[in-house]
Amino acid sequence: MIEQTIFDQYGITVDREEKGNRYPAFRSGDAIYSIIPLEEVNEAELAERQQMSEHLALQGDRYVSRFILSKEGSYISVTEGQLFLLLENTSQEEGRSTQMGRKLAKFHHRARSISTPIKECSRVGEWKGLWEQRIDQLERMWNDKLVAHPNNSFEKQFIESFPYYMSLSENAIQYLVDTEIDDTPVMTDGGTVCYERFTNDIWSGKPCIKNPFDWVFDHGSRDIAEWTREQYFAKPLTHQPEITEFMNDYQALGTLSSFSARLLYSRLLFPIHYVETIEEYFSNPKESRANELEDKLNGYTDTAHYYEEFLKRFYEIAQVPARQLNIPSISWL
Question: DSSP string covering 88-152, please?
């Protein structure tokens, strides 16, 4: 049993299971522990995640999960052939969704000062290649379905909608490339700790846990864009006040540079919501999930013109002085 392994290897007694977490978790005394299963061991990556965790904890972030050494002096343990490591959270406070923009800005500011080079976990400068790879893959799938003819309504919708979303993706990539060529990063554009996908729920749990295995090292605009995208699709008709408040709160600790604003916009232009829906469908999900994905795809395509309007007005909604910063607009929006 894992409980006996944890006691034997860490001297920690499992009091009770802690549910509602991405990873298996349990309480012991006043702390919560997360069990991170490891399929393989990339020592450089694990070292970077540990260094990012320690840096943020030393900077005063109470919610960061910290790596725990076993009695053998290793972060990695094994039970029944499964490698794992243990993370500890001592704060029991509930995360709240208020002033999320300010909290994110503070998190980015603290993490930006890390002196250790982060390479394995870094996505800085990689957006273009990753986006091109995913769109190329979808284009190959689209060509295959076009030749074979669609089998169902989802595939038919995919065939009809993909040219539009490929064009949108190409606009996003060009906007990103132009930004990197024409604009100059400033001090606050340095890499920082970000999330694979930052959402409103990430820090709103009970308790709030900031897990290093949810992180990547990237430009802070990544988190702003993904929070904004989620907010838009969660509230397509009433998103404006909360996005404006979020952007104001974030910029209370320092206004976005033109470089940051343009990176943020390029990420919103790239239709990752559409891409992921198609990718998941063709990964052969269960029938109930396939039906959900079809509904989601129909929702995206039926309201694409509203998202265009949102993109057209984004700098205004975010209160970014685009004209003053000489930020280019997209002519066809």
Answer: EE---PPP--TTHHHHHHHHHHHHHT--S---TTB-TT-HHHHHHHHHHHHHHHHHHHHHH--SS
Q: How far apart are CA 333 and CA 330, in angstroms?
A: 6
Q: Check residue 208 and give left, alpha or beta (phi > 0: left; psi -120 to 50: alpha).
A: beta
Dist. CA 247–CA 102, nearest whole Å: 9
**Side-chain half-sphere exposure of 151, counting CA atoms within 13 A:** 5
Q: Hey, what are 248's tokens? A: 């104001």
Give the C-alpha separation, 267 to 269, whole Å. 5
pLDDT band at 61 (very low <50, low <70, confident <90, very high): very high
Alpha helices, DSSP H, located in the chain: 2-10, 43-58, 100-112, 127-148, 153-182, 221-234, 240-251, 258-269, 272-281, 287-302, 304-317
Q: What is the pLDDT of residues 235-285, one digit of tens each?
A: 999 999 999 999 999 999 999 999 999 999 999 999 999 999 999 999 988
Peptide bond into 236 cis (omega under 30): no
Q: Is pLDDT above 90 for 289? A: yes
- Contact, 252 vs 212, CB < 8 A? no
Q: Which amino acid is at 309?
A: E
pLDDT digits (tens, 9 = 90+) for 225-240: 999 999 999 999 999 9
Residue 263 to residue 269: CA distance in whole angstroms: 10
Q: What is the pLDDT of residue 160?
A: 97
Q: Which amino acid would we find at residue 120?
A: E
